[in-house]
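User: Could you write out the 3D structure of this protein bound to adenosine-5'-triphosphate? I've included everything you need below.
Assistant: Certainly. Input first, then the structure.
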Amino acid sequence: MATHARGLIATENTTGNTTGNADGRPGERRETVRITGLVRSFEGRRVLDGLDLSIHADEFVALIGRSGSGKSTLLRALAGLDHEVEGTGGLSAPDHVSVVFQDARLLPWKRVLDNVVLGLAGAEAEERGRAALREVGLEGRERAWPIELSGGEQQRVSLARSLVRDPELLLADEPFGALDALTRLRMHGLLRRLCERHRPAVLLVTHDVDEAIVLADRVVVLDQGRIAADITVDLAGPRTPGSPEYAALRDRLLGHLGVEAPARRERAEAEETRA
Ligand SMILES: Nc1ncnc2c1ncn2[C@@H]1O[C@H](COP(=O)(O)OP(=O)(O)OP(=O)(O)O)[C@@H](O)[C@H]1O
């Protein structure tokens, strides 16, 4: 990963985890993102209301929350797309940030490979672009036009375009929201493999609680512009919906979203029947 984080390399680490990092003291992990007291208002209404959040290097954080809770606003601030955010302690994010949106946002008049390497300089750019396309399973499609690709394939190109820039921080705003369920599952596997290989810090905005559990190290719940819960995904077995631990975590997250979770509802119904 790149090493030019804006004001981050020298920051104190705050957690007691033990993986260590070349840029931090032994036994500590470097923070890639640090947000303190972040405020964003629209027309006098606070959409981000003094928000605090840290993301460590290599960490995969999923951000969930009800519609309008401020998820995309936070992501835009981290992407450097919003210069009107305020903060008491501020917002530290790296310079090398890539963003993946729900729609792939490819330039239709450029071929796939040209979309991937757009804006990259240097003789090796094309080779890196080809390698990125290989990684996302699109070898041989370099000269295709975006319109010739399926939605899932276009999103693969979008991922290749992000990763070829070797970001320290990958921001993803509902990247699989427009895909069918099967393609989404395949993309989960692909994203996980890519992140294991490239190891960016990731902030994934999603409405899909299962997507959050399957992919993330931590799930953060946003409610009215503040962090309502910050839960480490620490499941002993495979992350499959069948396990009781998975179901309990899913229930807990759905509870934070104000959804009556199925397992809890069944328990309540059983208790009612017994009474
Ligand atoms: N440019 C803007 N002007 C005015 N209000 C805005 C603007 N951008 C966002 N908002 C408001 O800020 C609030 C949070 O929006 P945001 O898009 O961050 O929510 P979200 O959690 O991503 O929602 P969703 O899950 O529906 O995508 C909403 O009430 C929205 O109307």
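Residues 27 and 95 are 25 Å apart (CA to CA).
User: Perfect, thank you.
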